[in-house]
Amino acid sequence: MYSSSGHRLDSGSSYLPYSNGGYRDYGGRGSYSGYEYDDNSYGYGYGGYGDYSDADDYNGYGDYGDPDRTAPMSRVSYGEPDDGRVERSRRSKQSRSHGGPAYRVSRGIALFIGLFSLFNLVGLALGHGSNQNLWWIDPTFLSSWFGSWGTILGMAVQAAAGILLVCWAFSPACGRGRKVATKVFCILAALIALQNAFSYWQVLASGSLYWALPIPLSFFIFLLFIWLSRRVGRSAVGKRHEAGKKAYFGVIVFAVIAALVFPLAQIFFFGTTDYRTNADAAVVFGARVYDDGRLSLALRERMDTAIELYSQGYVGKLIVSGGIEEGTSISEAKAMFSYAQQQGMPSSDIIVDEYGSSTKETVDNTVAIAQSNGFGKLIATSSFYHMPRIKMLYMARGVNVYTVPTVGNVLSNRTGFALWREIPAWWYYWLTDTVGGSVG
Fold this sequence. Notes:
Elements: E1 15-17, E2 23-25, E3 30-31, H1 82-98, H2 101-125, H3 142-146, H4 148-170, H5 176-206, H6 217-233, H7 244-271, E4 281-285, H8 297-311, E5 317-321, H9 332-342, E6 350-353, H10 359-373, E7 378-382, H11 387-396, E8 401-405, H12 415-435
């Protein structure tokens, strides 16, 4: 035991005074105040080890009272070798670097973006429509700078970013080369997204957009990639981190959450933007029709928007598409035709497609109608939550359609259900038409 002055009272031990008034026991224990509570206690007053997870701070190697103030004192040992404590400190740092909700969120998002990018490129390579990576970054502007090489460069950035992000999601602790490469391609993706945002603002400032949000999704993607680059930069360099099944499960969960949020983000930003412009025809997508021929609220809003486009001179024709629902005797297309006539439209300017029983069938049928009538430019009119899926299907068929969401009561009592229904519907069509290649 020690006396109140800091001297050890039992025999058989020796000590030397420190310059700060404490005492060091040769047996390996000591404290700033010189007090030891028992033989098993850590000797330093600040918790014993006191190195704040770093091997070379003031509590680890110190020279308190050392004559030349240059030679570090021996580490105080508590029955554990120095290299064991250093390894424990390293693992503690690595655990903090690779653990925690924020880190798993970033790795989950990286996994989602990486897989989405790679699957889109695989589908494109197999000839299944256009590059659906335009949903998150659009590098097509590079073609104006580098010609045909710009397209190759853009896809190379998407491919490299996809591969590196997937690797980082599953193995964040990596060699310095892969770490630097991942960070560089995250920054490149961020710069492309920032250019997309500036292009959007230029179009918005020119007045070409009938209605749009002031901040595009591209700007948030830019911020997301800057954040990912910072998370990658904080990753440990070294051997593969053994995170365990629980950590990998968390990464996959956040990747699934990102996949659920992605279509909703597209609906909120893209689906609500009104891209009305002069075109040859407007395609109106069908919705529920009652037995007496009346249009449901959603379908009436779609027809009112299309008729408005016609009356304002944006289009010269309407293509109304919709099948016959079970339990009804009239097709959606015929009910839409009758409604347009009642609003004063001549029947000669209305083209009827009674075989559009689904979104995909309407897209396929209207593409064929447009080709047979020589229509080079189309507008698609539907509910705002429907727009991303419509745009994706037309893109898969190589048709650049302009989307105009409905006006009026967009937040009906069925909007919530329709929003959640769009999540599986969007991914189903993406998988079957874009990646699966069901497009003929």
